[in-house]
Amino acid sequence: MNLKECPVFLRYSVAVILTPLFAFAASFGSGSLKSILRTIILFGAVTLFLPVANRLFQTNLKYKRIIILGGAFLTGVIACALAFPLVDSLIYKIHPILYILSGGVYLALFYEVFLLHCQRRFTWLFLFPASIVAGTIGGIFFALPLLFSPELFLSAIIAAYVNAIPIAFFLTALFTRLNPAYISPPDTKSDYVFFDTKLAVILVVLGSGFFASFAARYVLVEQEPKYLAVRKSDPSAIRTLSGRLESAQFTLDFVPGQPPVLTEVKNYRDNNVSPDGLITLQLQQSPRNTVFRNKDGKELYTVQDLLWDENWDGNKFFFRSARGVWDILTFQGDSKPSVQHVIADAIFLVPGGDSIFSALQNEFILKEKDAEPRLIYSAADFFQGVSTEYTPRFLTFTNGFSHIFYLCTRVLPFGHSTPTLFIFETATRKVYMLEHLYHCAFLPTPLQWKEKK
Known about the structure:
four-stranded antiparallel sheet
């Protein structure tokens, strides 16, 4: 069926129906429903403004070009204002005006390409790359908050270019075959046979849609933490710290008035033997269990499918048995252990007693023996606007809870974990961030703070 021969209303109806499909193809790789909905709103704005642009272009108005571009800009602004509640990135929550204006910039650029096509009757071999250029420029404007370093600038340009490919395919189809006021290009036969095949078109839209979404996800996953580290991390939060933060992978030395000094520990201690040497962990493959044995080889306790984090603290072994649940095994000599279950995202066993310092939904709680849990500090408001998913691992605190150290990991687009340390100054609610503490070839281990005497 040739769309050129269809009634105008039917052709426009087809354009409206296909618009969400184009939007989905351009954003499905992000894995985010909100991202898909935001793309549908933006693409819908382009389609809904098309009859207005067609009508204005057919008039004899003196300033119709300015009127069309101004109308496109206003339509884009309205679209992004409607999409703003779906924004899940802290960057654009901080810069709402920029996000809303970006919709206007996008549509003004898109309809500049439309006007060039209408006036020059270009073939799609021109329209497609011109639309890529327009989408790339719009993407760079959208990424302005990230352009504070050469590295981020380069990654933003690459992401904007890749994102523009499925957008360009949508614009090319919309402004030509799907346009109710179809403007036929000159009858010239292109030598570029590859561009005229349906198979190439399918590969372009599907392949570019996936990589465009992946590129957008990379910018969000990798650049939002850098944005936080530059714009939200406050060095004055650690101005009074004096001491050393230790883990099995790194040490972090603090001197008042100076940046912390990071030292990566090369000799990582095996975690299969208790510090007193009385208990040994034996890993089984089938079934996949972890068996605790004493020196005589007697089985004391068995854990099925030991997950994520596990560590010794004196005669106590604590591990994440499930998401949000920790088990603490307390051994007395080489006898069977007592078992305690703690609901938390991360825990710290306070030395010298049975107190547990834990984090649950980014709130830090102290549970002392025979006492009610006590809220020490809440960082929920800090993480509320952050779309990057941080997984809490371990935490500790300074004397008097003046500072809380919160070690988290996040998954990169290629599947590797990278550690991030948040240091909260509880009195001022300031936060200091350290990214990429060490090469995360293994999971983090508990933190320990030592005051400098």
